[in-house]
Amino acid sequence: MTGASAIAALDGATLLGERASNGGYKVPGLASAGLGGSRLMPTRDGGWFALTLLRTEDRALVPAMLGIDFDGLIDNERIAEEVLKCDCADLLERAREFGLPAASADEAPASPPFEVTVTGPSRTRPDRPPLVIDLSAIWAGPLAGHLFHLAGAQVVKIESPTRPDLIRRDDPATFDIINQGKASVLADLLDPAQRGALIELIRRADVVIESSRLRALAQLGVDAEALVRETPGLVWLSVTGHGARGPAAHWAGVGNDCSVAAGLSRAMVEAGGEMGYVGDALTDPLTGITAARLGWQAWQRGEACRVVFSMAAIGAQALAEERAFDRAAIDAELKAWSDGRGLPFPAVERRKLVDPVREIGVDTQAWLAC
Description:
There is one protein chain. By secondary structure, this protein is α/β, with parallel strands linked by helices. The chain has helices spanning 5-8, 12-22, 56-66, 76-83, 88-97, 140-150, 166-170, 172-179, 192-204, 216-219, 224-230, 255-261, 264-270, 283-301, 311-339, 364-367, and strands at residues 38-42, 48-52, 102-104, 114-119, 131-134, 154-159, 183-186, 207-210, 235-240, 305-310. The strands form two sheets. A seven-stranded mixed β-sheet has the order 4-10-9-8-5-6-7, with helices on both faces. A three-stranded antiparallel β-sheet has the order 1-2-3, sandwiched between helices. The mean pLDDT is 95.
């Protein structure tokens, strides 16, 4: 579709497994691969509840979510004890009310894999590679931006000076791979001048990628849907945990818990394995690939649109496709995955950096003069 040799050289196993392979991860059990920031816990009614705690401020909310008095930061063992006293559906509802990334192993995705929420005026495809503004963080959105870069796009990564991309600190090897070749800009959206300069940059762009809560940018003064309606050909790609509409639009979700919500953990049990996490946050790279593909197609057509992606539903769709293609094969792989817990993650070749990783904020003046 892109005609890019760098895209043609990729394979799916690399994109899905390189973070874990390069990081020396072990095949997970009830704690997610890597740092174990997401945990699966049994509940009173026989369910399984997944909770992801990546930030100190999230862990501080857990006692209130559980309805207990607790001073300080609650540890994982105490959380598991309290979870076992509760029913899964009640826990999931409370966790989502508190804005915590959580899932049940037996839920169904609340949204379609992707949805066009607004369209705008078309334009003739420009006679140049697309200009992509990457406002996203962690893995799915930055991977989409990385695929655009490999296809020849000019990609500008925007970060907050107070909350830069978390994996810049926590996983620099993965950060470098999926952010190489991108310009690096710092923008404080609370500053009116910087926010205005960013909006003007977006109006010049072809594609925007972001992974904020659906209302978060609008509350900061960046109205995605208004910009799409006003800007010919602007393609806006929004990565979410659970979709665009209804209560699910407000649920937090990251790769590991969204993979549980997608049904991957329950599928492993049904294939004869034990309850646990499947792969390394698989809905992140699956969503990044999907967003890049659909975003490139929309750019080629010159259609202004906002597309909202549900990581949980994309994972469920991938599982359904694999089962329809060869149920015996995917069940055998899931069983083998369960049996392999504790072993080194399947090895994939480490990709080499071919473009520079820009120092944070070094391109701010060039792209965001204000």
